[in-house]
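Issue 218. Parser rejects a valid record. Input:
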Amino acid sequence: MSNTNTLKITVKNGATKKDFDLSYTLEKSELTEVYGFTVEGDLWKACEDAAYIQNKGRFTVVGFRKGHAPKSVIENTYGKDVFVADTEEVAVNEVYNALMESKTIDAENLAMRPALDVSALENGKVSFTLTVAYMPTNVEIKYTGLEIERVQPDVDGAVEREIAAAQDRAGFWEVVDREVKNGDQINLDYSGSIDGVKFDGGTAEKQDLVIGSGSFIPGFEDQLVGAKAGEERDVKVTFPEDYGAKDLAGKEAVFACKVNAVKEKKVPDLDDDFAKDVSEFDTLEAYKADIRKKAEERETKNAEIATSNRIVEALIKNNPIALSEALIDQRAATMLSDMRRNMESQGIPFATYLSYIGKTEQDMIEGYKAEAKDRELTRFIMNYIVEKENIQVTQADFEAALEVRAASAGKKTGDYRRNMKQEEADYILNTLMTDKIIKFLSEHNDIK
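Output the parser choked on:
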């Protein structure tokens, strides 16, 4: 549904102010409103004058004290469009403030800060939309009496896996004269072609490959099982549709392979000598006891976290509440931005990564939407529970957590507090609140 409305805007320039009536369009859908504006004419001029007053101090003009050059002089010196971006900012802010002051927007129920999308900008005119998302109202959330299966710590399995990993690290590959089995390491030459034409990156010599590792495309490794050293085989595969190299995706290829050697992994026996070689202990029994002691604490904590995740999953499953699509879109876009920032901080160009996996930014955003919805729904449900149950983090809770962190860092609590940034304080508070909510949910649900 779309309609046209009028918004009263007051633009202040120093001691003077001017009132304007600005027409706008409004499109409504479930929990979402999209406001469309075009600022031009006298309103643009007023915003431009305000932009000049706010920003004139940035410019240096010969013959004038800084901040005292007339607007026309600055434009002649720096270009007629020098204040366009600043005017856009003023216009958007004035419109946003007017919407909030007029209570056109339900500020108390906003799900996010309105999202700005500028569709056109030129000297004298700007067109933009503000997308507003609201949280659901008048909903009842089921958060007690749920049946949830507790995750049990797998200490025995953890001990076995760690010892097996230590065995594997201490092992070595030994050449054998037999057919290739799953788990063997082979050395091979291969040359790939599509329709008889070799392609870039499809040829190599003396490459080591562990059969069953999944290092090569699906179907490649399986077809080498049963081969012997010196044997040549043609391996026929189809590249996945989502393969990183788009020119190969979905295409059938033939790899002419030659197995140069077959090796199997030899691992040491589990005895006291093994324990001495891989640890500080003299006996296998002592080595296992140490692994078990560490595993019990780690696996118990992991099981608690996994159980907490199941509680959250149960909340989502039992409360299929509709959320604003604009809110989900924004969360997904934020998740993409976080991923880009993390990758680029590691020196990986994000555009290169997207090219490698054959996806666009929009593809990534679409892929994030399901998780984004779960995150926002979880946040909504948690806030609901906090309000309903009056769950609070006290100053004493915060001080106790601070003492633990300070002790862990080998510092006095006072010194730690003085050097703590606001982001860390927020993290501590959020963690404490989450722990309290989970504790409440654990006590008020049937966790078996």
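Fixed in the parser; the record now loads. Residues 284-318 form the longest helix (35 residues).
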